[in-house]
Amino acid sequence: MSDATMAERLLTRSARRPVSAGDVVGVRADAALGTDGSVPMALDCFAQINGAEVTDEIDIVFALDHYAPPTSPAAVDVHRRMRSFASHHAVRLYEVGDGIGHQLMVEHGHVRPGTTCVAADSHATTYGALNAFGTGIGSSDLAVLMATGTLWFGVPESIQVELCGSLGPDVAAKDLALHLVGRLGASGARYAALEFTGRGVEKLDLDDRLVVANMAVEMGAKAGIFPCDDRLREELAEQDIPSDHGITPFDNARYMRSVHIDLSAIRPTIATDDRVDATTTTDHLAGRPVTSCRIGTCTGGRTKDIRQAVEALDTAGGIAAGVNVVVTPASRRVREQLDDEGITTRLHAMGAQIAMPGCGACCGSAGDLPDDDDIVISTANRNYRGRMGNPHATIMLASPATVATAASRGAIVGTTDGERRHG
Amino acid sequence: MGKPRIVRARVVGDNIDTDTIIASHRKRDSPDANVLRRYLFEHLRPDYIATVEPGDMLVAGENFGCGSAMEVAATVIAASGLTPMIAASYARTFYRNAINNGLHLSHADTTTVTDCAYYEYHAAPRWVLRPLDGRGDDIQLRPVTGLASDIVAAGGLIPYVNSGRSLTAHLHEP
């Protein structure tokens, strides 16, 4: 098996037999997340399973994150049902305001290297940052998983993303993620796993890897897997998360395709035109007006992201008149860190709204909806028309620093050397 | 085996995401696919659902159902009567949810399928879509296979499990 990919090796462990790309296999998962977006249907499905009890063989987690806070009687009812089920069946439930489920899975040690961790939410690819096979499943899957601990998978082929160099000073992991999406396209990794290799990987910290793995699904990927290298082991050790089952790629693993990226060549990047893969550099869009700026989500709402945003805002002299800025920390813990560092106070003073941790500002399920003529720039992962709950609003995606500098001028700001080049 | 079905193709394009199939905020009020079907493709083609007739079949391009993994995207199509459906390719979460809900779907090169044209849909064992006017070649369908086709045949994942079968039978073998 010396030419097996990380995806094949992780699923081999979960299937407890050797598997390779193309096989359709039953596996036992290690952890699973359900959210208020997916659990209601899962509970209906669960009730249809003959004699179902919740298995204690896997770690099952619920998060009340999409409708946080709930703004309709139906959403309140969903939360009541989830709380009731969780307390009856000893399921770990994170409350409204605790944060985005994916962030909580990572922060609270539910995801560990070498495991298979799924969520009934597509951004479960995030877990690949911790060297887990992380992928999105449906509500029926979650119901069967709760009852049996098992689910079925097609074992994916893998695309190698080989990284070299390191990111420039004004360039973030989000720029790498958007660059990669632009390069592979919105379906360029469909059914496949992305596997990150090369000397550039160690230049990315866990927060960076979470951003990139999170957006693997925007290329259609089933998973986006980083190796369990020394840097990951050290960061997890600080949080007392064991990494004994972590793996690193074999040198002669079989990949369906390889993509090479020099991190030092990545420029600040933006996705436009209702398409996550319609990417270009900030220099090409400099001067384009924006009216609403959002910093948050499971892609760009961690402490590092918001720190970068507030520093960029400070440097640029605060928020421009007439620009709406909504900051949504990814979790309560992130919010507390920001409070401790005085960042929330600074953002408040500049006129930003600080929203309750959750998914609302990203998918229009709670919180501030954009207006018809709003041009939004967000640290989120999706800019489909209507994504934020208003089909008339325009959405662009960028890094925290790019979003913050746009907030300072009410327009996209190019890089300093880009302005020099373009006059 | 049976006789071919006459179907009318209702074509949508490439990269149709699940929020376009059904806006995610719609499911806040009801998860019931028979309610949500009224909003199928509402932003893409406001007239689409009102003009669906019995025998219509959904035909899509590449990467159908990309974006959010919400399962209602599959159940709303199952409830719309637009099945079986075909697409050049599916996003994996949509494909998985479709199989788990017993939605009959297959892969095919859909580039020559014409919106609102009529076809003969031949299921097993032939698996072809044949233009009814005799013009154009048969389009080969690539059906779901293996464990996934067993789940579709059972009517979905829950009926499959309820029939007493285990996804990980191999773990229990001696």
Walk me through the structure.
- The complex is a heterodimer of chains A (423) and B (174).
- Chain A is α/β, with parallel strands linked by helices and 423 residues long.
- Chain A has 2 domains: 8-13 and 23-263, Aconitase, domain 3 (2-Layer Sandwich), CATH 3.30.499; 270-422, Aconitase, domain 3 (2-Layer Sandwich), CATH 3.30.499.
- Chain A is built from 16 helices and 18 strands.
- Chain A has helices at 6-15, 39-48, 73-88, 101-107, 139-148, 173-184, 206-214, 230-238, 282-285, 297-300, 303-316, 332-340, 343-350, 360-363, 400-409, 416-422; strands at residues 24-28, 31-35, 59-63, 92-94, 116-119, 133-136, 150-154, 158-164, 193-197, 223-225, 257-262, 269-271, 279-281, 292-296, 324-328, 353-354, 375-378, 394-397.
- In chain A, strand 8, helix 6 and strand 9 (193-197) form a beta-alpha-beta unit.
- Chain A is globular.
- By secondary structure, chain B is an alpha/beta fold.
- Chain B has a single domain (5-172), classed as Alpha-Beta Barrel (Aconitase, domain 4).
- Chain B is 26% helix and 19% strand.
- In chain B, helix 3 (72-80) packs across helix 4 (92-100).
- The model of chain B has no long low-confidence stretch (mean pLDDT 90).
- Classes of the chains: A alpha/beta (423), B alpha/beta (174).
- Chains A and B meet through strand 1, helix 2, helix 5 and strand 7 of A and helix 4, helix 5, helix 6 and helix 7 of B.
